[in-house]
Amino acid sequence: MAPKITGYKTHEDIRFPTSLSGDGTDAMNTDCDYSSAYVKLYTDSDLTGYGMTFTIGRGNDIVCKAIEELAKRLIGKDVEEIFANMGKTWDYLSSDSQLRWIGPEKGVIHIALGAVDNALWDMYARSRNKPLWKLVVDMTPEEIVNATAFRYITDAITREEALAMLKEKAATRAEREAKVRELGYPAYVTSAGWLGYSDEKVARLTREAVEAGFNHFKMKVGADRDSDLRRGKIIRSIIDDPQYLPPGLKPRDPNGPDLVGKNAGPTGSVLMIDANQVWDVPQAIDYVKSLAEIKPWFIEEPTAPDDILGHAAIRKALKPYGIGVATGEHAHNRMVFKQLLQAEAIDVCQIDSCRLAGVSEVLSVLLMAAKFGVPVCPHAGGVGLCEYVIHLSLIDYIAVSGTMERNVLEFVDHLHEHFLYPCSINKNGRYNVPSNAKEGYSIEMHESSIAEYEFPNGSYWKSVRGTTTAA
Questions:
Q1: Per mean pLDDT, which range of 265-274, 365-374, 375-384 is the poorest?
Q2: Average pLDDT over residues 233-260
Q3: Percent of the chain beyond pLDDT 90?
Q4: Which of 354, 323, 351 is nearest to 338 (CA)?
Q5: What's the start-to-end Cα distance of the chain, in Å?
Q6: Per-residue confidence (pLDDT) for residue 468, from 0 to 100
Q7: What is the reported pTM?
Q8: Annotated catalytic residue: which of 379, 391, 414, 418?
Q9: Percent of the chain's residues with pLDDT above 70
């Protein structure tokens, strides 16, 4: 007899005091305490599913309440019936009319659904003794289509089109899997570019990132134009200078197929900039033009995340300067991505593993981006996001788009030690492929970390209660 879901547990607020070090600071978000709304789904067997969504502190308890309301809908369900059609399961979880009313399919209720859906996928992968990415790429094209959320996007991609795309790539999946296991998945680093860092720290962290094998770098902009130019020139002076390359590593060809059109410098290094939504459309255009001399590949989140036509206008205005537009970190749902793609508003599609409502909705965006020929470069950083998104990029490369040549996956070197199966980077600045059969979606936290950082009664927060940071 298949296990049934018997219960759940949410942790009100697992909060890490990253605001103290300036980690995560940008023009919009100035005091981030990276936080996780974390859920465990229990069955009447040893099988458990772990999921989370990411916030930056206050409000995390509200997300947890929403997670509880959604998780209740799973009590008593047969897990094999759930796993048999994950797209149908996703539709069921998103269709409670009263809970849907406080979205619909956006905001707190939607990111809460991301945590619950991800926990189900984690449970599914664990039940098959596979990492999540391997579970999905071993599915038939029909099974992947059935696992995908298609409502409201069939004017952009139909189930039949998706099935044909997946079948076309199916015969060569094994070759791509072997290749990415050998090489790793391309990554870029943001850790050097936070606004809260001094120039000296930016320079040091940039040198360390070059030495670690990275050749794509992102910095935060939007608070002060002169400061942004200065910091951008500091980063460029390091990443464009061959003396900082690791011993034995030759400069990459800036005009090679993986770098052409990215404004790569003489060593083949690429700089990206991220404004985190601070500008109106005209401001964005003028500001980014003024940063053209540091030659960014793209500007990320230049304006409000759901302003489709605004992004299209910015992209059109910046195209003569060779600067692209990227967004998606705060895109509410698959319909926003549909419109961004249909309006030709973005050069790079940046999915988020739990802003979207779990794997089933992510699959819909991967399929649309592949159809429209736009590379997917997921948002990561935060807490747990890097652990999540390597699975999604592997699914995209192996089963959906079939390419990782121009894709890069964000890596931020924060808080990985709190997970049982942390992600890792190889000597060439690429993600290693998760390979432990027990890790599922790689998001299970150490119980000791929960006990220390659960807010407000974890041991860390008790020790600082009454301070400004804990307020």
A1: 375-384
A2: 95
A3: 90
A4: 351
A5: 49
A6: 43
A7: 0.95
A8: 379
A9: 96
Name beta bridge partners: 430.
186
Q: Are 341 and 365 in contact (CB under 8 A)?
A: no
Q: Rounded to whole angstroms, how far apart are CA atoms 422 and 437?
A: 14
- Displacement of CA 12 from its chain's centroid (Å): 22
What one-character DSSP code corresponds to residue 291? T
SS (H, E, C) 306-347: CCHHHHHHHHHHHHHHCCEEEECCCCCCHHHHHHHHHCCCCC
Closest CA to 428 of 182, 240, 170: 182
Name the average pLDDT for the chain: 94
Whether 391 is catalytic is no
Residues 6+ apart with CB under 8 A from 453: 14, 15, 16, 418, 460, 461
Do 310 and 343 form a contact (C-beta atoms < 8 A)?
no
Q: Which two tokens stand for residue 180?
A: 């990415």
Nearest to 367 by CA among 389, 388, 341: 341
The residue with tokens 């038939």 is 140
Q: What angle do CA 282, 286, 290 make, to 5 degrees?
A: 165
Choose the weakest-confidence range: 415-419, 423-427, 463-467.
463-467
> Hey, what's the torsion of the CAs at 175, 176, 182, 184, to 10 degrees?
180
Residue 298 has pLDDT above 80, yes or no: yes
CA torsion, ordered 376, 408, 293, 199, to nearest 10 deg: 130
Q: Indicate the pairing of strand 270-274 with strand 216-220.
A: parallel
Which one of the listed residues 130, 220, 332, 418 is annotated catalytic? 220
Confidence of residue 469 (pLDDT cuts 50, 70, 90): very low
Residue 362 is which amino acid? V
Rounded Cα gap, residues 203 and 312, in angstroms: 34
Cis peptide, bond prior to residue 104, ω within 30 of zero: yes
Q: Which residue has the tokens 């502190």?
A: 57
122-179 pLDDT, tens digit per residue, is: 999 999 999 999 999 999 999 999 999 999 999 999 999 999 999 999 999 999 999 9
Task: Check if 220 is active-site.
Answer: yes
Q: How far apart are CA 211 and CA 101, in angstroms?
A: 50
Cα dihedral sign, 281-285-286-291: positive
Tell me which residue of 399, 459, 393, 461 sits closest to 187, measured CA to CA: 393
Kindly provide the residue ranges of all beta strands, DSSP E only, lying in 328-433, ordered along the sequence. 348-349, 409-411, 430-431
